[in-house]
Amino acid sequence: MNKIIVAAFLLLACKTSQAQTVRARDLGILFEGATGKYNAITDVHNVLVGYQTKIKDSGAKAVRTGVTVILPNGKSNKPTPAGWFCLNGDGEMTGTTVIDEYGFNFGAIGITNTNSVGVVRDAIGEWNIKNFATNDMLDFSFGLPVVAETYDGILNDINGLHISKKDVFAALGSAHSGPIEEGNVGGGTGMALFLFKGGSGTSSRIVQIDTARYTVGAFVQGNFGGRKDLMIAGIPMGAELTELMPVVNARKKDGSIIVVIATDAPFLPSQLKLLAKRATMGVARTGGFARNSSGDIFLAFSTKGPIDNNNSTLQTWQSIPKEQLDKFYIAVAQATEEAIINAMVAAKTMTGYNGNTVYALPHARVKELLKKYGRKQ
User: Which residues are known catalytic residues?
Assistant: First the structure.
Protein backbone atom coordinates (compact mmCIF):
# COMPACT_ATOMS: atom_id res chain seq x y z
CA MET A 1 0.00 0.00 0.00
CA ASN A 2 2.86 2.38 0.88
CA LYS A 3 4.43 1.74 -2.53
CA ILE A 4 1.19 2.73 -4.23
CA ILE A 5 1.00 5.95 -2.21
CA VAL A 6 4.62 6.80 -3.00
CA ALA A 7 4.11 6.08 -6.71
CA ALA A 8 0.99 8.27 -6.77
CA PHE A 9 2.87 11.06 -4.99
CA LEU A 10 5.76 10.89 -7.47
CA LEU A 11 3.36 10.98 -10.42
CA LEU A 12 1.58 14.01 -8.94
CA ALA A 13 4.92 15.70 -8.25
CA CYS A 14 6.01 15.08 -11.85
CA LYS A 15 2.80 16.57 -13.24
CA THR A 16 3.00 19.52 -10.83
CA SER A 17 6.61 20.16 -11.85
CA GLN A 18 5.60 20.19 -15.51
CA ALA A 19 2.69 22.53 -14.80
CA GLN A 20 4.92 24.93 -12.84
CA THR A 21 7.56 25.25 -15.56
CA VAL A 22 7.83 28.91 -16.57
CA ARG A 23 6.88 29.53 -20.20
CA ALA A 24 7.08 32.61 -22.39
CA ARG A 25 3.49 33.72 -21.77
CA ASP A 26 4.13 33.62 -18.01
CA LEU A 27 6.55 36.52 -18.51
CA GLY A 28 3.84 38.53 -20.26
CA ILE A 29 5.24 38.01 -23.77
CA LEU A 30 2.60 38.67 -26.41
CA PHE A 31 2.00 36.08 -29.13
CA GLU A 32 -0.64 35.97 -31.83
CA GLY A 33 -3.06 33.12 -32.44
CA ALA A 34 -5.19 30.77 -30.33
CA THR A 35 -3.40 27.81 -28.76
CA GLY A 36 -4.53 24.30 -27.95
CA LYS A 37 -5.10 23.05 -24.38
CA TYR A 38 -1.42 22.45 -23.57
CA ASN A 39 0.09 24.88 -26.10
CA ALA A 40 2.21 21.95 -27.26
CA ILE A 41 2.69 19.58 -30.18
CA THR A 42 0.82 17.02 -28.06
CA ASP A 43 -2.37 19.03 -28.61
CA VAL A 44 -2.50 17.10 -31.89
CA HIS A 45 -4.35 13.90 -30.99
CA ASN A 46 -2.19 10.80 -30.54
CA VAL A 47 1.14 12.65 -30.84
CA LEU A 48 3.50 11.61 -28.03
CA VAL A 49 6.84 13.07 -26.89
CA GLY A 50 9.52 11.28 -24.86
CA TYR A 51 12.91 12.33 -23.49
CA GLN A 52 16.05 10.82 -22.09
CA THR A 53 18.39 13.37 -20.52
CA LYS A 54 22.03 12.55 -19.68
CA ILE A 55 23.90 14.82 -17.27
CA LYS A 56 27.15 13.57 -15.75
CA ASP A 57 30.12 15.42 -14.32
CA SER A 58 33.44 13.98 -15.48
CA GLY A 59 35.83 16.87 -15.00
CA ALA A 60 36.51 18.71 -18.25
CA LYS A 61 34.59 16.06 -20.23
CA ALA A 62 31.16 16.71 -18.79
CA VAL A 63 28.15 14.95 -20.31
CA ARG A 64 25.27 17.30 -21.16
CA THR A 65 23.20 15.58 -23.82
CA GLY A 66 20.13 13.45 -24.51
CA VAL A 67 17.58 12.23 -27.01
CA THR A 68 14.03 13.30 -27.87
CA VAL A 69 11.45 11.13 -29.63
CA ILE A 70 8.21 12.28 -31.23
CA LEU A 71 5.67 9.57 -32.06
CA PRO A 72 3.13 10.77 -34.67
CA ASN A 73 0.65 7.93 -34.16
CA GLY A 74 1.13 6.78 -30.61
CA LYS A 75 3.47 3.87 -29.95
CA SER A 76 3.21 2.44 -33.45
CA ASN A 77 5.05 2.59 -36.75
CA LYS A 78 1.88 3.45 -38.66
CA PRO A 79 2.85 5.70 -41.59
CA THR A 80 1.85 9.34 -41.60
CA PRO A 81 1.86 11.67 -44.64
CA ALA A 82 4.93 13.89 -44.42
CA GLY A 83 7.03 16.52 -46.17
CA TRP A 84 10.30 18.20 -45.27
CA PHE A 85 12.31 21.31 -46.12
CA CYS A 86 15.95 22.29 -45.71
CA LEU A 87 16.59 26.00 -45.15
CA ASN A 88 20.32 25.49 -44.59
CA GLY A 89 22.06 22.16 -44.94
CA ASP A 90 24.91 22.12 -42.42
CA GLY A 91 23.11 19.40 -40.52
CA GLU A 92 21.44 16.01 -40.83
CA MET A 93 17.99 14.49 -40.98
CA THR A 94 17.84 10.83 -41.99
CA GLY A 95 14.94 9.20 -43.80
CA THR A 96 14.18 12.16 -46.06
CA THR A 97 14.68 10.27 -49.34
CA VAL A 98 11.95 7.83 -48.30
CA ILE A 99 9.67 10.78 -47.51
CA ASP A 100 10.39 12.23 -50.96
CA GLU A 101 9.72 8.88 -52.62
CA TYR A 102 6.67 7.65 -50.70
CA GLY A 103 5.26 10.77 -49.08
CA PHE A 104 5.21 9.09 -45.66
CA ASN A 105 7.13 9.01 -42.41
CA PHE A 106 7.19 5.60 -40.73
CA GLY A 107 7.05 5.66 -36.93
CA ALA A 108 9.03 7.52 -34.27
CA ILE A 109 11.11 10.62 -35.06
CA GLY A 110 14.34 11.16 -33.12
CA ILE A 111 16.30 14.33 -32.31
CA THR A 112 19.71 14.23 -30.64
CA ASN A 113 23.25 15.58 -30.91
CA THR A 114 25.30 15.53 -34.11
CA ASN A 115 27.43 12.50 -33.28
CA SER A 116 24.58 10.32 -32.05
CA VAL A 117 22.32 10.29 -35.10
CA GLY A 118 23.41 6.79 -36.11
CA VAL A 119 22.78 5.08 -32.79
CA VAL A 120 19.39 6.79 -32.40
CA ARG A 121 18.36 5.77 -35.91
CA ASP A 122 19.40 2.16 -35.32
CA ALA A 123 17.71 2.03 -31.90
CA ILE A 124 14.39 3.30 -33.27
CA GLY A 125 14.62 0.73 -36.05
CA GLU A 126 15.36 -2.05 -33.58
CA TRP A 127 12.47 -0.92 -31.36
CA ASN A 128 10.18 -1.05 -34.40
CA ILE A 129 11.31 -4.59 -35.23
CA LYS A 130 10.79 -5.79 -31.66
CA ASN A 131 7.31 -4.30 -31.48
CA PHE A 132 5.90 -4.44 -35.01
CA ALA A 133 7.71 -7.09 -37.08
CA THR A 134 5.62 -9.61 -39.00
CA ASN A 135 6.37 -12.65 -41.14
CA ASP A 136 5.26 -10.79 -44.24
CA MET A 137 7.93 -10.87 -46.96
CA LEU A 138 7.17 -7.16 -47.54
CA ASP A 139 7.58 -6.33 -43.84
CA PHE A 140 8.91 -2.77 -43.35
CA SER A 141 9.15 -2.73 -39.57
CA PHE A 142 12.53 -1.00 -39.39
CA GLY A 143 11.00 1.92 -41.26
CA LEU A 144 14.17 3.91 -42.17
CA PRO A 145 13.63 6.28 -39.22
CA VAL A 146 13.83 10.05 -39.35
CA VAL A 147 16.51 11.28 -36.93
CA ALA A 148 17.81 14.85 -36.84
CA GLU A 149 20.51 16.64 -34.89
CA THR A 150 21.93 19.87 -33.54
CA TYR A 151 25.45 20.32 -32.14
CA ASP A 152 25.89 20.31 -28.35
CA GLY A 153 29.71 20.22 -28.27
CA ILE A 154 30.02 23.54 -26.43
CA LEU A 155 28.54 22.05 -23.26
CA ASN A 156 28.78 18.31 -23.93
CA ASP A 157 31.65 15.87 -24.47
CA ILE A 158 30.18 15.19 -27.90
CA ASN A 159 33.06 13.00 -29.06
CA GLY A 160 32.49 10.71 -26.07
CA LEU A 161 29.47 9.20 -27.86
CA HIS A 162 27.42 8.98 -24.66
CA ILE A 163 24.01 8.19 -26.18
CA SER A 164 23.23 4.46 -26.25
CA LYS A 165 20.39 2.34 -27.59
CA LYS A 166 19.21 1.96 -24.00
CA ASP A 167 18.74 5.73 -23.80
CA VAL A 168 16.62 5.72 -26.95
CA PHE A 169 14.50 2.84 -25.67
CA ALA A 170 13.97 4.79 -22.42
CA ALA A 171 12.83 7.87 -24.36
CA LEU A 172 10.43 5.76 -26.42
CA GLY A 173 9.08 4.09 -23.28
CA SER A 174 8.47 7.44 -21.57
CA ALA A 175 6.69 9.06 -24.52
CA HIS A 176 3.39 10.61 -23.47
CA SER A 177 0.71 13.11 -24.41
CA GLY A 178 -0.37 16.21 -22.46
CA PRO A 179 2.05 18.82 -21.08
CA ILE A 180 5.73 18.21 -21.85
CA GLU A 181 8.94 19.55 -20.39
CA GLU A 182 10.97 22.24 -22.14
CA GLY A 183 14.46 23.70 -21.95
CA ASN A 184 17.36 21.52 -20.76
CA VAL A 185 15.77 18.17 -21.57
CA GLY A 186 16.21 15.38 -24.11
CA GLY A 187 18.13 16.23 -27.24
CA GLY A 188 17.97 19.89 -26.22
CA THR A 189 19.95 19.37 -23.01
CA GLY A 190 23.24 20.92 -24.16
CA MET A 191 21.92 23.47 -26.66
CA ALA A 192 22.08 27.29 -26.81
CA LEU A 193 19.88 29.96 -28.41
CA PHE A 194 21.15 33.44 -29.28
CA LEU A 195 24.04 32.82 -26.84
CA PHE A 196 21.60 32.14 -24.02
CA LYS A 197 20.73 28.62 -22.89
CA GLY A 198 18.36 26.96 -25.34
CA GLY A 199 17.02 23.46 -25.91
CA SER A 200 13.60 21.87 -26.41
CA GLY A 201 10.43 23.92 -26.89
CA THR A 202 6.90 23.52 -28.16
CA SER A 203 3.70 25.41 -28.97
CA SER A 204 0.43 24.95 -30.86
CA ARG A 205 -2.26 26.86 -32.75
CA ILE A 206 -5.91 26.24 -33.60
CA VAL A 207 -7.09 26.75 -37.20
CA GLN A 208 -10.77 27.09 -38.04
CA ILE A 209 -11.98 26.28 -41.58
CA ASP A 210 -15.77 26.53 -41.87
CA THR A 211 -17.05 24.36 -39.00
CA ALA A 212 -13.89 22.23 -38.82
CA ARG A 213 -11.36 22.91 -36.06
CA TYR A 214 -7.79 21.76 -36.69
CA THR A 215 -4.65 21.80 -34.55
CA VAL A 216 -1.11 22.66 -35.66
CA GLY A 217 1.73 21.87 -33.24
CA ALA A 218 5.42 22.72 -33.39
CA PHE A 219 8.37 21.18 -31.57
CA VAL A 220 11.85 22.68 -31.82
CA GLN A 221 15.34 21.72 -30.79
CA GLY A 222 16.95 25.16 -30.87
CA ASN A 223 20.69 25.79 -30.95
CA PHE A 224 21.35 28.83 -33.14
CA GLY A 225 21.69 32.60 -33.36
CA GLY A 226 23.96 35.49 -32.42
CA ARG A 227 23.06 37.62 -29.39
CA LYS A 228 22.35 40.81 -31.36
CA ASP A 229 19.96 38.86 -33.62
CA LEU A 230 17.45 37.98 -30.88
CA MET A 231 13.93 39.36 -31.31
CA ILE A 232 11.11 38.69 -28.84
CA ALA A 233 7.61 39.98 -29.58
CA GLY A 234 9.12 42.35 -32.14
CA ILE A 235 11.57 43.81 -29.60
CA PRO A 236 15.34 43.82 -30.34
CA MET A 237 16.03 41.95 -27.10
CA GLY A 238 19.51 40.81 -28.13
CA ALA A 239 20.72 44.36 -28.64
CA GLU A 240 19.47 45.23 -25.15
CA LEU A 241 20.60 42.09 -23.32
CA THR A 242 24.36 42.54 -23.58
CA GLU A 243 25.05 40.89 -20.22
CA LEU A 244 25.49 37.19 -19.42
CA MET A 245 27.56 36.31 -22.46
CA PRO A 246 28.66 32.65 -22.55
CA VAL A 247 32.00 31.56 -21.16
CA VAL A 248 33.52 29.43 -23.92
CA ASN A 249 37.03 28.19 -23.18
CA ALA A 250 37.27 26.00 -26.29
CA ARG A 251 35.37 24.54 -29.26
CA LYS A 252 33.34 27.45 -30.66
CA LYS A 253 30.73 26.67 -33.32
CA ASP A 254 27.43 28.07 -34.53
CA GLY A 255 24.41 25.82 -34.04
CA SER A 256 21.26 24.65 -35.77
CA ILE A 257 17.53 24.23 -35.38
CA ILE A 258 15.26 21.28 -36.04
CA VAL A 259 11.51 21.95 -36.27
CA VAL A 260 8.85 19.22 -36.33
CA ILE A 261 5.33 20.32 -37.30
CA ALA A 262 2.31 18.12 -36.58
CA THR A 263 -1.30 18.60 -37.62
CA ASP A 264 -4.57 16.69 -37.66
CA ALA A 265 -5.69 18.46 -40.84
CA PRO A 266 -5.74 16.34 -44.01
CA PHE A 267 -2.89 17.24 -46.36
CA LEU A 268 -1.07 15.75 -49.31
CA PRO A 269 2.69 15.21 -48.87
CA SER A 270 3.41 18.08 -51.27
CA GLN A 271 1.28 20.38 -49.10
CA LEU A 272 3.10 19.24 -45.96
CA LYS A 273 6.34 20.31 -47.59
CA LEU A 274 4.78 23.76 -47.98
CA LEU A 275 3.91 23.76 -44.28
CA ALA A 276 7.46 22.71 -43.37
CA LYS A 277 8.79 25.66 -45.38
CA ARG A 278 6.77 28.10 -43.24
CA ALA A 279 8.72 27.12 -40.13
CA THR A 280 11.33 29.38 -41.74
CA MET A 281 9.09 32.37 -40.96
CA GLY A 282 8.88 31.44 -37.29
CA VAL A 283 12.66 31.18 -37.06
CA ALA A 284 13.02 34.56 -38.78
CA ARG A 285 10.57 36.20 -36.36
CA THR A 286 12.97 35.36 -33.51
CA GLY A 287 15.96 36.76 -35.40
CA GLY A 288 17.34 33.66 -37.13
CA PHE A 289 19.29 34.11 -40.37
CA ALA A 290 20.21 30.49 -41.22
CA ARG A 291 23.92 31.24 -40.98
CA ASN A 292 26.45 29.24 -42.96
CA SER A 293 27.29 26.64 -40.31
CA SER A 294 23.71 26.19 -39.15
CA GLY A 295 21.60 23.15 -40.03
CA ASP A 296 18.01 24.36 -40.31
CA ILE A 297 15.86 21.40 -41.31
CA PHE A 298 12.09 21.15 -40.89
CA LEU A 299 9.62 18.24 -41.04
CA ALA A 300 5.81 18.36 -41.18
CA PHE A 301 3.41 15.42 -40.83
CA SER A 302 -0.34 14.89 -40.69
CA THR A 303 -2.09 12.34 -38.51
CA LYS A 304 -4.87 12.19 -41.10
CA GLY A 305 -3.74 9.61 -43.66
CA PRO A 306 -5.32 8.22 -46.81
CA ILE A 307 -7.73 5.27 -46.87
CA ASP A 308 -6.94 2.09 -48.85
CA ASN A 309 -9.57 -0.19 -50.33
CA ASN A 310 -9.80 -3.82 -49.19
CA ASN A 311 -7.31 -5.01 -51.80
CA SER A 312 -4.92 -2.09 -51.32
CA THR A 313 -5.29 -1.34 -55.01
CA LEU A 314 -6.84 2.09 -54.59
CA GLN A 315 -5.99 4.87 -52.16
CA THR A 316 -8.29 7.79 -51.37
CA TRP A 317 -6.91 11.06 -50.00
CA GLN A 318 -8.60 14.09 -48.49
CA SER A 319 -6.85 17.45 -48.47
CA ILE A 320 -7.39 21.07 -47.59
CA PRO A 321 -7.51 23.10 -50.86
CA LYS A 322 -4.34 25.06 -51.50
CA GLU A 323 -6.36 28.27 -51.52
CA GLN A 324 -7.14 27.64 -47.83
CA LEU A 325 -3.54 27.09 -46.69
CA ASP A 326 -2.75 30.64 -45.55
CA LYS A 327 -4.26 30.06 -42.09
CA PHE A 328 -2.04 27.02 -41.68
CA TYR A 329 1.06 28.88 -42.89
CA ILE A 330 0.40 31.55 -40.26
CA ALA A 331 -0.19 28.90 -37.57
CA VAL A 332 3.12 27.18 -38.38
CA ALA A 333 5.05 30.47 -38.22
CA GLN A 334 3.39 31.51 -34.95
CA ALA A 335 3.81 28.13 -33.24
CA THR A 336 7.45 27.84 -34.33
CA GLU A 337 8.24 31.32 -33.05
CA GLU A 338 6.66 30.66 -29.66
CA ALA A 339 8.26 27.22 -29.35
CA ILE A 340 11.71 28.79 -29.77
CA ILE A 341 11.06 31.42 -27.10
CA ASN A 342 9.52 28.77 -24.81
CA ALA A 343 12.74 26.76 -25.08
CA MET A 344 14.77 29.81 -23.99
CA VAL A 345 12.45 30.80 -21.14
CA ALA A 346 12.38 27.27 -19.69
CA ALA A 347 16.13 26.66 -20.02
CA LYS A 348 18.44 27.06 -17.03
CA THR A 349 22.07 28.13 -16.80
CA MET A 350 24.41 25.23 -17.54
CA THR A 351 28.16 24.65 -17.11
CA GLY A 352 29.64 21.72 -18.98
CA TYR A 353 32.47 20.65 -21.25
CA ASN A 354 35.82 22.27 -20.40
CA GLY A 355 34.10 24.60 -17.95
CA ASN A 356 32.08 26.30 -20.69
CA THR A 357 28.99 28.06 -19.33
CA VAL A 358 25.85 29.26 -21.09
CA TYR A 359 23.51 31.44 -19.03
CA ALA A 360 19.73 31.36 -18.85
CA LEU A 361 17.64 34.13 -20.34
CA PRO A 362 17.18 36.70 -17.51
CA HIS A 363 13.42 36.73 -16.91
CA ALA A 364 13.35 39.95 -14.91
CA ARG A 365 15.22 41.86 -17.62
CA VAL A 366 12.88 40.50 -20.29
CA LYS A 367 9.90 41.79 -18.30
CA GLU A 368 11.55 45.22 -17.97
CA LEU A 369 12.13 45.40 -21.72
CA LEU A 370 8.59 44.29 -22.54
CA LYS A 371 7.34 47.15 -20.38
CA LYS A 372 9.83 49.61 -21.89
CA TYR A 373 8.65 48.80 -25.43
CA GLY A 374 4.98 48.61 -24.48
CA ARG A 375 4.72 44.94 -25.44
CA LYS A 376 3.77 43.34 -22.11
CA GLN A 377 0.36 41.67 -22.00
Answer: 256, 294, 296
